[in-house]
Each structure stands twice: as structure tokens, then as C-alpha cells.
Amino acid sequence: MRLFNFRKYYYHFLFLIVLCIGLRGILVSDGLLGHNWDFTFPYPKSLFSRIYILSTYTWLDFNLGSRQTFTLSHLVPNILLSFIGHATTPIIATKLLLVTIITVSYHSYKKLLDYLVASYHINYLTSYLYAFSPFLF
Predict the structure, then answer these.
(1) pTM for this structure?
(2) I want to staple 52 with a disulfide (CB 3.0 to 4.6 A). Which of 27, 36, 45, 79 is the partner?
(3) How far apart, in whole angstroms, are the C-alpha atoms of residue 45 and residue 47?
(4) Cβ within 8 Å of residue 136, ≥6 positions away
(5) What's the DSSP call for residue 55?
(6) Model confidence over 12-50: pLDDT tens digits?
């Protein structure tokens, strides 16, 4: 009796290898991640730990910088990210966010394909393509 069935988890291991290779430049860097069209995560730990407060303010042309009530979709992930950043560092938290988004995208799309069509090996390939799609970001 084998303790671990490698064949069953082959595609998942392959995904982890592709993930590490694809993000190798980001995972080994010591800089903070961000993108230029929306916002970057605050670099100082004091601001990063309060990102849930910062995310309740929005920039709209009719109500510049005031508190809005419809930011719940941003508030919950930012509270979780704030907690992780407070427990570790902002740099580790943003890298963990990126790895988590790609991993959840891969697994959820694979489950969706298995539900909609039969479970085929090609579903892994399309899940890889979906998880590493630049349109996620």
C-alpha cells in the first residue's frame, strides 16, 4: 500500500511548479507589488495594517474622497489582507495575495469545468490558462 498517490496529484504538482517558475521574479524580490492604473498597497506597515480604513474612502467626481457605503466588496478582502500584513509584512502579504488569487482561480475553474463537462485531462490545461490569464488582474 502506497502512502501517497503521486499520479492522482500530478497535475496539481505541475501547477505548483509552473506557478513558482512563472512568479520567480516576484517571489524573490524584496520590493512591494502594485499596478499603475489603480493603486499600490501602502509600503509602511503602519498604513498597511490600516488598509481596511483606507479602502472605505473612494474617489468619485461628485463626492471626492468621502466615505461610501457600497465598498463591502473591497472591504472584506482588505480586512483579511490587513490582518495578514499585520501578522507578517506588507511585502509577504501582497505576494501571498497574488499566489492565492492564481491558485484559487486554477482550482475553481477546474471544478467548474468538471461540473459543466466531464472530467477530462484537458480541463487541467484550460485551468492553467485561466489561472495565468492577465485579465484576472
Answers:
(1) 0.73
(2) 79
(3) 5
(4) 101, 102, 105
(5) T
(6) 899 999 999 998 988 888 876 665 555 556 667 677 666
